[in-house]
Write a structure and sequence with these properties.
0% strand, globular, membrane, transmembrane helix, transmembrane
């Protein structure tokens, strides 16, 4: 169930990132790349810790997200210099959202269990 939750959150975050790109009729390969990137970023943030950096969950998410975005930033910097700050801010925000969901997932599980319990009544 944990893996399904992680993938579901990754798909939602990936869609939030890639949907505007699809709507702007950008190259489909770039859109799918951005989507898959955030599915993978979510999986990594949910299943790893960064004890060597001595940071909490809320900082680890943006750090991992920005680090995983750097290859894409290097590729787009050649042609679209104005897009680099937007991509980096986007990585920080989405990484923070993923980290917050990771931090509060136990509470989310309790809420879902309570809702299911009351529905059964």
């Amino acid at each position: 169930m944990e893996l399904v939750f992680t993938i579901l959150i990754g798909v939602v975050i990936g869609a939030v990132n890639a949907l505007p790109m699809f709507l702007k009729k950008m190259d489909k390969a770039n859109c799918w790349s951005a989507f898959v990137q955030y599915v993978v970023v979510t999986f990594i943030i949910f299943n790893t810790t960064l004890p060597q950096l001595n940071v909490n969950d809320f900082l680890a998410g943006p750090i991992v997200s920005v680090l995983m975005t750097m290859p894409m930033v290097i590729m787009i910097a050649k042609n679209e210099k104005k897009a680099v700050p937007i991509v980096l801010v986007n990585a920080v925000i989405l990484g923070l959202i993923i980290a917050a969901i990771k931090h509060f997932r136990a509470s989310l599980g309790l809420i879902i269990t309570a809702i299911e319990h009351f529905r059964a009544l």
